[in-house]
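Here is an idea for our session: we take a single protein and study its fold together. Start from the sequence, derive the C-alpha cells from it, and show both lines together. Once you have written the record down, we can walk along the chain together:
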Amino acid sequence: MAFDHRQKSVKTITVTSGKGGVGKTNMVANLAIALRRLGKEVMILDADLGLSNIDVLLDLAPKYNIQHVINGEKMLKEVVIEGPHGIRILPASSGVQEMTELDEFQRMRLIAEFENYDANIDYLLIDTGAGISANVAFFCIASQEIVIVTTPEPTALTDAYALIKVLFTNYQEKDFRVLVNSAKNSADAIEVFRRLSLAAEKFLNISLDYLGYVPLDESVRNAVRQQKAFLDEYPGCDASRQVSEIASKLHTDNRAKVKGTLQLFIGNLLRGERNVPA
C-alpha cells in the first residue's frame, strides 16, 4: 500500500534574519543534518529566490531549480536533489522569479506539484533571503515556526528587531524563536537575546523564545571554506554540540502546532499575497 503523504504532518520552520552574513544558511544546513541524525526526514527549501546559497555551501551542482517547476518544464521530483545524509533540497538560483510575481496559473501549477510529491518528510526547513522584503514575509507567515538568526553585532541585533517588528505589525506574527550565532559563550548569547527580548516586550508587547546559540568557532569557518557542513567535518567542536542540542530542542518541542502538509504550506505561501498591505 502506498504511503499517503497528504496525511503526514510536516513541521515547517522558516529560518530568517534581518541582516545578511549572520550564518543563517549555515545554520539551516547543519540543523538539517542534526535532525537527520535524530532519524527524521528533512527537506530544505532554498527560498532565497534571487541567490542560491545552500548548494554552494554544500558543494552541490543542481541542474534544475524551482523556476523550472514554476514554468512547467520539470516536475518537483525532478528538481529536488539529494544532499548530505539523504537530505532533500529544493534549490533556488540567481534570477528566479519571486513568489510575489507568480500569476494564478503558476501558483496552481506549484500547488499541484506539491500535491503529487510523494516523499516522506518530517521537517521542511525554509532558508529565506535576509531583510524585510515581502517575499521573506510570505515564507514566514506560511510556516508553523519562525526562527530569527542574529549575532552579537549591533547592526545584526537592530535588523533582527526590525524584521520582528515588520512581521508583527504587518502580519500579526507573535511567535518568534531566536538563535544567536557567533557568540563568545553562553552568557554572551543570553545577553544578546535579553537585549532583543527587552525591545520586543517594551515596544511590541510580545515575548520572544530563546532557542539557543552557536559559539564563534574556527571550525565553522574552516568547514565553510571546504564547502562542508561543520557537523560532519568537526563533529566534536563546540558549534556542532550546540547545533545538535538545538535540533533536539526542536524535535522534543511539544508546544501545540497546527498540523500541516507540504501542499498546505505552499498553499498558505501562495495565498499570503492577499494579506500583504498595499
About this structure: The domain at 9-272 is CATH 3.40.50.300 (Rossmann fold).
